[in-house]
Amino acid sequence: MHPIVKLVSQRFALGLLLLFGASAMIFGLTEALPGDAAQAVLGQSATPESLANLREEMGLDRPALTRYFEWLGGILQGDLGQSLTNKLDIAESIGNRLGNTLFLAFWAAIVSVPLAIFLGLLAVRYRNRWPDKLISAVTLTTISIPEFLIGYVLVYFVAVKLGMFSPLAMINDSMSLGQKLNAIALPVIVLTMVVLAHMMRMTRAAILNVMQSAYIETAELKGLTNFTIIYRHALPNAIAPIVNVVMLNLAYLVVGVVVVEVVFVYPGMGQYLVDHVTKRDVPVVLACGVIFAAIYIGLNMLADIVAILANPRLRHPK
Amino acid sequence: MNEQLDFMARRVTAGKMTRREFMGKAAALGVSAAVASSIFAQAARASEPKRGGVVKLGSVGGESTNSLDPATYASQVPYHNGNQFGDTLVNVAPDGTIENRLAESVEASADAKVWTFKIRQGVEFHNGKTMTPEDVLKTMQRHSNEESKSGALGIMKGIESMKTDGEYFQVTLTDANADLPYLMADYHLIIQPDGGMDDPGAGIGTGPYKMEVNEPGVRHVYSKFANYWGDDGYFDGVEILAINDATARTAALQSGQVHIINRVEPKVAGLLSRAPNVTVHSTPGRGHYVFIMHVDKAPFDNNDLRMALKHAINREDMVEKILRGYGSVGNDMPINAAYPLFDETIPQRTYDAAKAMEYYKASGHDGSPIELRTSDVAFPGAVDAAALFQQTAAAAGIPLEIKREPGDGYWSEVWNVQPFCASYWGGRPVQDQMYSTAYLSTADWNDTKFKNADFDAMLLEARAELDPAKRKEIYSQMGQIVRDTGGLICPMFNDFVDATSNLLTGWETDPNGELMSGHVTRKMWFA
């Protein structure tokens, strides 16, 4: 078997095992939280009878292990089950929310990844001169400010004062693509500001590392322009660490944006997950957790594969 | 003079001035009756509701776990959903009287034990079926039977039997209750086809708006129901958006994305009221923020200590700092002037360090710190309020130790379990219900563990009493018993603070709940 195929299948199997572990851990942790779905739903107005009634209706009176294996059996057959609290089909609700999350992440990535890499290249080209310092200063500032604050500042000045873009990023199916893009403009700007610095700095560092090599000196000596050297010779050799950090940030754009979702009232997965954690709605929390874990594991695997493919020595083993 | 006339005309248009008031004031300005009358007519015409437009309401308290099943309503978005698609038998009107909705008339037997509701004929559900007394009966059964998990289960307890008789629905109570119609106005008791037995979360009722889109935690879309039985409900459509973040809610209103928001934070209400095109409405309600002591657990089983703590809290300061003036001081009983039959003459308790110290010494407490549990979820500003309490108590020589609890599990692990903690009450439409919910010896939610046989007897006596003057006298005594011997420290009653766009008109003050007791989309219209 080709070593790459072997490696990918190994990683895939390991990923599945990790997912299984993650689901068990999430289930264990939600069980360990004080209170259960019945208590969370009834809140301050719970009485012993109504609690007992609701527990029985939700099936919470059965042992935890039984419930976990039932859930596991369901998911292996592609059935995510029903939400405990509102009885809606989980697959359907998540499908909608996941689509929204991916939509936002996609547009944030489209803007931020090329921008970050371009700024990184620019910073290397003008290393230690004012463009480099300016880029670093601005991106490091935006990553250091909490994202909700950037969000609120943008909402106040851009949406309320200037009247551009909507302060609410509530998208729905009846909107056209243009309307949707207009609605998510502000969150995309915030997310770009948040992830830019990490990717930009990593690109800069990785390329600077390569720039010490002998072949760069050769390229300089044969008279290539600075930017061509960086673009043609340094970037391809620095691709592995860059892809790694890009993937980490993409994963963040999918699973870590709950704060931005709250500020802009975006109907994504983060808010959906938080609501159900508060209500101890275990099947939904499990489903979301497994999806998030799968995205993380998948993107990391992709980063590894790209790193291997980008390296001729790994691509053509002896 | 013209400016003043203009101002008065605007008040008439906004429905805030009657013809009698207007004519009287116009005469005082020297305007002839004929002229004043024509100005009034013009202004009043402008206040005729106009139909049309889609109104958007941004509300706190929407989670993706919400259901449209009225039995499960526990937060604001579901509450407003119910008000779009559903109707109850009766409503509590803004002036505290009973207003008929799906019931055409309500009659009680002389002993207030048997209540008969005449059910309105020809009312259509959104699924095309005609509403019958049978549907009413099934609805009430679903909220009161043994498997019920309804939020209204507690208030349905005193019912002995229910039946239908032609176009009548009859309730027989185990004990007399002069306030039964108020219980039937509870927002959980929306009449559903077949009582919602087969599909409780279908969102089908008899209300002015028909459910179109149901995305819990995101948005709920309604369109005007063509065959609605009533006159109100002036919009073509209603969209309810779940906007839990307070800043996002205010920004959405300011930028015109929504027309109505609830729960304006007191600290931004002043600023928001200065914004153009927006009106902030502050409505005194019955909700109150409390510190509760279990009167059956040491050291709170000593009334001198309880009195010491009651005198050691600065109520005015809390209204000022925690509610930013959007509220009023409490008097250590759960009742205020927003309730019918409230006795205004009960003296107001104030902060008195010397008296507190006296009571504290008399209690013989050993001087060890008294643990007060609080949390962000207890009420907005509960942690700060506890700190203020700690300072004023320290000035009276009473050491309080604040224990900050996590919000998760506060209602199951701390409230009603620990002997001294911060909490809130949403209030009830009538005194009887408030006292039976939390102060009767046998009440499920007796969160101060207050048990007083005389008090219980008086509660039952007042409940069966149909003479308002006598009831008021009994309620006054009961209030004073709670105030002087109970475990409740009630520093403040909070206002409902809502805001609407100036594109809308028709707001009226309704102490029964936020956003005109949930009727904002029925009673307001686009000017």
Automatic annotation (TrEMBL), chain A:
Membrane topology of the entry: Multi-pass membrane protein
SUPFAM superfamilies referenced in this protein's UniProt entry, alphabetically: MetI-like
Domain of life: Bacteria
Parts of the chain that traverse the membrane: 12-30, 102-122, 134-159, 179-197, 242-264, 284-310
Domain ABC transmembrane type-1: 98-303
Pfam hit, one: BPD_transp_1_N
Keyword terms of this UniProt record: Cell membrane, Membrane, Transmembrane, Transmembrane helix, Transport
Keyword hit for Transport: yes
Keyword Lyase part of the UniProt annotation: no
Gene Ontology CC: plasma membrane
Subcellular location: Cell membrane
InterPro entries, alphabetized: BPD_transp_1_N, MetI-like, MetI-like_sf
Cross-referenced PROSITE patterns: ABC_TM1
GO BP field: transmembrane transport
UniProt similarity note: Belongs to the binding-protein-dependent transport system permease family.
Protein name: Peptide/nickel transport system permease protein
Record organism: Ruegeria marina
Automatic annotation (TrEMBL), chain B:
CDD domains the UniProt entry points to: PBP2_NikA_DppA_OppA_like_17 (cd08503)
GO biological process: peptide transport
Main location: periplasm
Top-level taxon in the UniProt lineage: Bacteria
Residue ranges constituting the Solute-binding protein family domain according to the UniProt record: 98-446
GO molecular function ontology, one term from the record: peptide transmembrane transporter activity
Cellular component, GO annotation: ATP-binding cassette (ABC) transporter complex; outer membrane-bounded periplasmic space
PROSITE patterns listed in its UniProt record: TAT
Cellular compartments annotated: Periplasm
Pfam families listed in its UniProt record: SBP_bac_5
Family designation: Belongs to the bacterial solute-binding protein 5 family.
Name listed for the protein in its UniProt record: Peptide/nickel transport system substrate-binding protein
